[in-house]
Amino acid sequence: MASLEISHINKFYGATQALFDVSLSIGKGEFVTLLGPSGSGKTTLLKILAGFESVSDGAITLGGRNITELKPEVRNFGLVFQGYALFPHMTVRDNIAYPLKVRRLPRDQIETRVREMLDLVQLTRFIDRRPSELSGGQQQRVALARALVFKPDVLLLDEPMSALDKKLRVDLQEELRQIHQTLGTTFINVTHDQEEAMHMSDRIAVMNHGRIEQFDTAFNLYRNPASRFTADFIGKSNIFAGEMVRGASGLDFRGDALEVQLGLTDRPQGRVDLMVRPEDITILTEAPDAGRVALAAEVLHSTYSGDRALYALRLGSGKEISAYGAARSGIHAAGAKVFASFAPGDVTLIG
Ligand SMILES: Nc1ncnc2c1ncn2[C@@H]1O[C@H](COP(=O)(O)OP(=O)(O)OP(=O)(O)O)[C@@H](O)[C@H]1O
Ligand SMILES: [Mg+2]
Fold first, then answer.
1. Domains, the chain
2. Burial of 309 (0-12, 13-18, 19+ CB in 10 A)
3. C-alpha 53 – ligand 1 centre gap (Å)
4. What is the mean pLDDT of residues 139-154?
5. pLDDT tens-digit readout, 256-279
6. Residues 95 and 141: beta-carbon distance below 8 Å
7. HSE (CB half, 13 Å, CA atoms) of 101?
8. Which of 22, 34, 43, 53 to mutate to test the pocket of ligand 1 (most atoms within 8 A of CB)?
9. CA 264 → CA 244, 251, 257, distances in Å?
């Protein structure tokens, strides 16, 4: 059941258009991430969901109810925003209790809820501290507890971990995922960290210049990107421009210095991009069997990470590609002549 419906939202700041016809249908209890480069409109969309910004056009409904014009405080959305800091003069207890005091809950119920939340974020022993006496990660967990204490319908998170170091960020990601599983609340998270998005989300909305490029699972975004932008933005990719041309058993791909027999019957002729992921390429020292694509290449350099090596290769055409290679029995040296080989079944056509 779709719970949060975002329909055809346009947003102008004066003459600048920040969002273009944005529509998303988000299920109850889903963990959705808005992912995109700086300036792509992620925060703008989140502020509109929170009610801090108005829409120029379009509507938002929650469980069928139109909330587009509702004030932030009556939306029942939890917020963890950059710059939406803890109250510095209040203890952890009072920070977390604050939304419930505003809602005039009885004192004993407030104390029970605060303790439940502290248990959830594993900060019970810090209940009487002030924010300045906590680490950055602990402060973010208090902010999370404060945003969840009143059982919001939706939790909105705008890069809550961007100020933390890598190790802490990974720990907090795992914690956030567990909290999401425990509560079953709808989470909408904003990040420009692709790995974070892939690790945590049920689905990811890829944003670019104020538009939704694709809204899908991490798997589908990676294996079947709908646009060149998504193919480039999610993971490493090698993209060859070319066209579909009639071959012996259907349409084949013909690009610069690359032909792949695909024999497709279910797509039109004409311009297309072909994508091969670096892990789908095998580096060989001799030409492979027929049936596989083989491109003569020279090793430019490699980056060894223990379990494997990432190679930069230059093809005969001058084009550079990247490929992972097993590194158990050695690493191909710079200058080595190799073949970059892949199966026709491992390519993805875009467009
Ligand atoms: N209050 C504002 N007035 C005018 N333009 C704005 C305003 N807020 C945002 N913009 C513009 O809208 C566009 C989207 O901004 P937004 O803050 O939503 O991007 P973002 O994806 O969150 O980027 P970042 O990753 O840097 O946080 C940008 O071009 C930005 O300059
Ligand atoms: Mg932002």
1. 2-233 (3.40.50.300), 238-350 (2.40.50.140)
2. buried
3. 12
4. 95
5. 779 999 999 988 899 999 999 999
6. no
7. 9
8. 43
9. 9, 5, 20
